[in-house]
Records
---
Amino acid sequence: MSGQRGRINIVSEQRGMYLTDDPRVCGFYNPIRDAMRRAVNSTEPELELKKAVMAANRTGQPRAFEEIADGFLPWLAAFKATGVPVEGTTYRAGELTLKVRPHLGLRRKDGSTHAVLVHTKEVPLTREAANVGLRILQHTIADTLPGATPMVLDVRRGKAYQMPKRTNLGKLDVLIAAEAMGYVTHWKLSGLFEAMQDGQAEAVGKVG
């Protein structure tokens, strides 16, 4: 959902993470997500986020974690919820199989529950992209947190999205299928292009 250039960068980045043996490439936001999960059941949520900020040791992590904490803590205080467990499952769109596990399960004082995907990136989340995440949560909610309301949280900005009532879900499913097909095709062609480049480099090496 990020346009031509964005998709190229995302697929290239994810292929690199998938193919690397270096664990440092993955999990940039995992410590702050873990802190958020602890925070929702803590009497001192600020302390949980502060611990993650203080422990951040990768390039860009301290600033990113601070911005996430600055957005998340006021939102959590206003939303007034505690954490509940969520389960993982899978969702299949054509040839693409997605692992789906909400980052947060929340219960409000009235007993209502929410399954929350958290957007942590610096680039703001768009309504169109949020709807894709919400629809995938809708399809999988019976397995992840039955009876919950799906939510996507743009955490740096403290802005939560829920599915608009007038959304045409049929068209949204078509969009998701098309995006999944484009992603798979791009992934396959990127691999083919990389193989061709490797073959050309090997040939040049032999000639040299």
Note: The two ends are 44 Å apart (CA to CA).
---
Amino acid sequence: MNDSAYRVDTTSRLAQWRIDNLSSCSYRKSDPFKIGNWNWHLSVEKNRVLFVKLYPEISNLTRENPPIASFVIRVVCSAGGRKSLIHPEITDRQLKSNDDFVWAIEVPLTGKFIIDVEFLDLKTASPEGGDPCSIWGEGLTERRSNATALSSLARMLTEAIHTDITINASDGTIAAHRAVLAARSPVFRSMFAHNLKEKELSTVNISDMSIEACQALMNYIYGSISHDEFIVHRLALLRAADKYDISDLKEACHESLLEDIDAKNVLERLQSAALYQLPRLKASCMRYLVKFGKIYDIRDDFSAFLQCGDRDLIAEVFHEVLNAWKGF
């Protein structure tokens, strides 16, 4: 039997397998054919009924990110005039093995026939969680472009590709790019646009940040910060975001600091909220201390806060306490 007997012809979303005669063989499996991100197989097995299977080729991609397929499959037989059998449309079925889609055809088929598969959609699990994403869906090109651009930016930083500025942290240096820093921060842009020492010397001194915190800041600016790195350096990043007017980073820190207020950090966060004008964080810390009565659980820390805290902030706390007593 020639090789063409196993070949599947394809377009971007359509696959057709032409079978001349199955009478001499009870089982046949097609060559692999590519649709979307995966290689696929069709197979037929003739017993009392004809079993048609569609499945992706077993690979690491299939194991880790199996396709979720929507398709229409038909069998068109030439014997006795053109006869077409259509399986009900398959919607969002995950296909991992050769048993995940089996079509049992009880109608006798003889002579030449065609198995025709039209893929309506192919989805993969979303890397961000939630609903699966179509590989052909709206926004896919944009998502791929964004992901590639971020990966390239990260490489520019980690591999020091054509760097032209040096960041001096308190205990180390990082090579970076003026254009990237200027695009992310109006403060950096102003530094490099005017005849300031940063422009002349090609250095930026960030002496109030450790090298680890400064690296976290650069990783955020270049789009490659990890969640753990962000959590560890939140307060330092908040300070830098306020100093360099990086509004999205400031808001990200604000949102994160709201999530895990407890007795050990509430006073520090209250002071940060007042210093950096974070009203929701300030209100949440006040509620934790006053409405929930936690101020009585941290008497030693609160006494230290009274000794060195901002006078206006201390007055606000006492005002909240007095209001709470009135309503008790």
Note: Residues 140-158 form the longest helix (19 residues).
---
Amino acid sequence: MNLWKKVILTALGLVLVSVAGFCAYGIKMYSDATGTVKGVYESIDRTSKRRETAVNIDAQEPFSVLLMGIDTGDLGRTEQGRSDTTMVVTINPKEKKSTMISLDRDILTDIVGYGTEDKLNHAYAFGGAKMAIDTVENLLDIPIDNYVSINMKGMKDLIDAVGGIEVDNPFEFTLDGITVPKGHIKLDSETGLAYARMREEDPEGDIGRQRRQREVVEKIVNKVISLDGVAKYRKILDAVKDNVKTDLTWDNMVDIQKKYMPAFKDIDSLQLEGEGQEIGGIYYQILDPTKLYDVQTNLRAQLGLPENKEMQAKDNSNYSNYIGGNETGSYQYDGTGVSDTTNSYGYAQDAANTDPNSYTDQNAANEVYSGGY
């Protein structure tokens, strides 16, 4: 089983926001529930450059959550990992609407705090959640108020914890020995991950895969906020306690349950699409600046922010600083901008195209990583 558990998914952000919040009254009496929330809480010392004051969830202000699926936590992988699934959710309680957008892992963008351009998913490898948040905030031109990350074991356990999810699969496929049949089917953890990660047999490639990822997240959310989800709260907590990190507090979750839940019933799914291009022999997704501006404007509106015309049709990529060709080096980052010798990730993007957390990825076109799993 060399690849099937790679996180292609996502999302305890939205799931955790819903789960702990919806269950708040039913399970707050249990010490294990509050203990789990405390266990997954991990604050980040950062201030958004796109808000003058921090968002107030208690006052029902619109806010955003960055959801990251990290490719570690299973198959013996214990390193930092990368955010191979990245989604941003904006929640607007006054409009009773949420927007969930998927970001391709191969998007070429400025890595904030790193000093160059690289693939979006490398931000987490270089600087953890803080660098990933800062990078996505810069890319989308919106404040990122909170984050949730989940590793691959957590997603697998979470699908089983909610009793599986039902989907309408348009065609049968087999991925790494796991067959997902055509038709209306119920997915468990293994078939669920296969359904979410397959792209080679999908006519739409990675775009189709990301659409299925969003579908899986929404299906999980629907199960979590149902009575069935409450009944299975212990399994849900077990699924997240060792595999999730978030800066949402228990009080935040209770407030969300009280004041934001109608917004989760109307989720608008978006996809930030680019064009595949090789630069220095490495595959990237290059974003169209006009389309990016449209997405930025949409998300800003959801957060109650005005249009930022300074960003209109602005191309932030000069493609001159990307790590490619025969350039080699090393980078150290602890999330504060100060070199950290205990959290160092070396890279060497030479002819072998190795990246900080190298592995063999059979699905990444024109990209070969060493040290496969």
Note: The longest helix spans residues 122-140.
---
Amino acid sequence: TCQCNWPECYHVWMRRVAVIAAHVIALGLTVLISLLSRPGTSEYLKCLSLLTILYLLCLTEGILLFSPEGTPFYLKARKGKVRLHWFIQALVLLAAATGMGFMVASNNVSERPHLATWHSMLGVGTLTTTVLQAACGICLLFPKLLKLSPPRLKLYHATCGLVVYLLAIVTVVSAMFSDWFQATVKGGMWYAFPLLPMFPALVVMNQITNAYLLRKKITT
């Protein structure tokens, strides 16, 4: 039961509902795009399915894992959450490299130019920032070598993570404006697809800003 007054309880429950909705939307959008990439559809659409599973599901769960409002991974100890976070991010990097390799090979076979669209350039930028973010995470293991306090390193890591997540959302949404996707998803249903990723993005942004970026003082 909630021990706070009614307005505080209301905001707590609203935050919990928002986090649960972010989980559901990330999983639901992944399933929907996976169904659209059934056998016989465009190879490019299958790439979108992989990248959607990668960024909208793995990245979302990897960040919301630390949400105080609720996560499907019930781990009380922060150490266990950190280990699971590392595992999920390793899957992110592996899937990103696999998806990028598949897209390059597909373009070579079909003799299509590389980096010819905004989506492809955003994808390369997102993959690059993901690798840099992973390197930033590794630095958290060796704070003394960088002569920075752990709280400050965590702030940098969280800030970079937010940038990576927002880039990933923009990359996925940009693919939904391509001709092949609009030919597959038609009518009013198409308008929902670019909007759906925005809600988990807002939840993730709120979590990171509340946990790190809004702190007035950082322990040095």
Note: The chain is about 75% helix and 0% strand.
